[in-house]
Each structure stands twice: as structure tokens, then as C-alpha cells.
Amino acid sequence: MFFQTINRMITAGTDLSINIRRVNNNLTVAVVPRRSGVKDGERIVPLILNGTPEELDAGFLQAVGTPVQKAQGILTNLETFEKQAEQAVSQSKAARSAAEKESKEVREKREKMEKLLKKAEDAMTGKMRLVDRLRYERNERIDHALFYWMQIFMAYNSNLVCRWFRYS
């Protein structure tokens, strides 16, 4: 009769741990229902009954019935919650990885655009430098040519002056 009542009391997947300790002429009984798939099931506080063996024989099953059924409901809800939380985590990881891929694509496009803009800026700066250099060299060539022609002119004029003094 004891085990038949226990069998009706617990559901499939539930473990019922019963610890019995003798203290003097009394017995202390601790009853803890556990669910195999629940991580936090160990936090359930055990139901502890104290009494003589005769008192426990008479009222043990009635005293344990309701609390064990309530604890089983809590454990079943906790197991369902943990499964849903695991599903949510796996779905959020999938969504996060999709968002990371999308953000990675956006980041790569942005970096590519920045590189192209930098190349364009460098090319523009390089052209400006080239133009400035060409202007400078042109000005230098003109100055050099003017200097050269001025020397020739002065040499020619001084030659003319020398000739003029010689012939005069």
C-alpha cells in the first residue's frame, strides 16, 4: 500500500528521495522530490517529518502527499522554463550571428569606401604636388634661362664695350 500510494503521488521523470534517521525513540524523515532534467532542483527544501514510528505509519503518506505534488509542479515548470530559456539563447545566438554577419558586411563596405576615399585624396594631393613641382621647375628653368641669357648679353655687351674702346 505504501509504494502504490507513492506511485500515484509522483509523475514520470521525478525522483523521490527519502532519508530516515533515528534520534532516540523518534524518527526524522526527510523527503525531497527531484527532476532529472532540472539544474536548480537541488534548491528545493526537503520536507522534514519528526515522530514516533507509529505516528509516521499513521500519517506519513497524508502529510507528504500535497507538498510532494506542489514541489513536482514547481519542478515541472522549472524544467519547462529551462528548456524555453535554452531555446531563447540558441535563437538569440543565431540572431546575433546574423546581425554580426550583417554588421561585418557593413563594416567591410565602410572600410573599403574609406580606403578608396583615401586613395582618391592621395591621388589628388599627389597631382597637386606634381603641378606645384612642375610650376617650380618651370619657374626655375625660366630663371635659369634668363640668367643664362643675361650672362650672354652682358658678355656680348662687354665684348662690344671692349671693342668700342679698342677702336676708339
Task: Offer a few descriptive terms.
alpha+beta; rod-shaped; 3-stranded antiparallel sheet; 2 helices; 168 residues; single chain
Q: Enumerate the strands of the largest sheet in spatial order, edge to edge or round the barrel.
A: 1-2-3
Number of strands: 3
The H-and-E topology, N to C, reads as: HEEEH
Shape: rod-shaped
Count of helix runs:
2
| Mean of all residue-level pLDDT scores | 76
Q: Percentage of helical residues?
A: over 70%
Alpha-beta content class? alpha+beta
**Poorly predicted runs:** none
Distance between the termini: 158 Å
Q: Tell me the β content.
A: 5-15%
Largest pleated sheet: 3 strands, antiparallel
Radius of gyration: 50 Å
Secondary-structure blueprint:
Blueprint: H1 2-9, E1 14-23, E2 26-35, E3 47-51, H2 53-167
Antiparallel strand pairs: 1-2, 2-3
Helix pairs in contact: 1-2
Task: Write up this protein.
The chain contains 2 helices and 3 strands; from the N terminus they run H-E-E-E-H. The chain is rod-shaped, with a radius of gyration of 50 Å. The chain is an alpha+beta fold and 168 residues long. A 3-stranded antiparallel β-sheet has the order 1-2-3. It starts with a helix and ends with a helix. It has helices spanning 2-9, 53-167; strands spanning 14-23, 26-35, 47-51.
Short summary of the structure?
The protein is of the alpha+beta class and 168 residues long.
